[in-house]
Amino acid sequence: MRGLACILMFQTHCYDSWLSPDARKTTFFMYSQLGGTLPAPLFLFLAGISFALVTDKLVGKGLPSAQIAKITIRRGVEIFALGLLFRLQEFLIALGWAPWSDLFRVDILNTIGISMMLMGAMCGIVLAARDGASRLQLGAAAMISAAAISLATPLLWTIWRPRWLPWPMESYINGVHNLGEPQAWLFPIFPWAGFAFAGLAMGFLLQCDWAREHDGLVFSVAGAGGGVLIELARWLDAMPKQIYPVYDFWHTSPNFFLIRVGLLLLVLFASYAWCRWGAGAWGFSPLIQLGQTSLLVYWVHIEFVYGRFSILPRRAESIGGASVGLATIFLTMLALSLVRTRLKGRGAEAWEWIRHPKEIRIA
Hints:
Structural class: mainly alpha
Oligomer: single chain
Number of helices: 16
Number of strands: 0
Order of helices and strands: HHHHHHHHHHHHHHHH
Largest sheet: none
Distance between the termini: 42 Å
């Protein structure tokens, strides 16, 4: 699933950066950008699933709730710090033409980090309140949190906007940045953290003993449930009256949130089928390989697509030219991913070789 998110991310960024104004008016570009609505929810959803696996292991070790919260929140702080470092790097590379406000952009890494901190706090509270809380109880709390974030989003973007906060802080609530109004291209906590909590709920469900024994059935039901959520959201959207004074389906609507969660569940089932019965079980899988180094390829490809070192001129390419660039980015990032996994853990060996080359050669 992470590998799929990487590929969808590559195509979205490449076509957005390189297509000419005329090419951007095509149906092809519209569908490209529609596919671009999935990578961020995928990354957040998978962060939630991974978080559930880690938390479950810590609970299994018998650690107290406060220590579990500390360990998991600290990991969220690390990811958030990486997000700030990424923004600083991009600003320094673009020094001279990037506005200073770019340092405070709420990007996907920032939101993943904050979501992990919030999930750590929630799990700590549930475990402290209910000694020996089950996976289902933790999953239910995560599901309620996801729903609460989604339901509060339309209000926090409009009539409940925390205008009293400095804009860099308000931007983490609704993505207002320094532009006076919430921006759809940013990744504030509302609604984006909701996808992480949805993944957290799914992760705890998958860890249940019964689910492990009936994994095929569980993933099939998840896929069917995703279809039901999509149809339910479409029915709710078609209602003649909406409960919110300002209804923005594509950006803040809980109905669109439900549709994307439904799509995530369908992708989850498809990924399971791909790995169990499809090409994912045939041998080398580019999707699995990219997914193992998703943070690295995200970090690196941005500069060669949007940044000063873009491999093609911005807003000047045909669909064919941009597609060649996309293929180049894909193959280059795949090669980088392979190098990363081959060298993983060998830094200490290299350091020992530098310090004691003669002893290493004799051995």
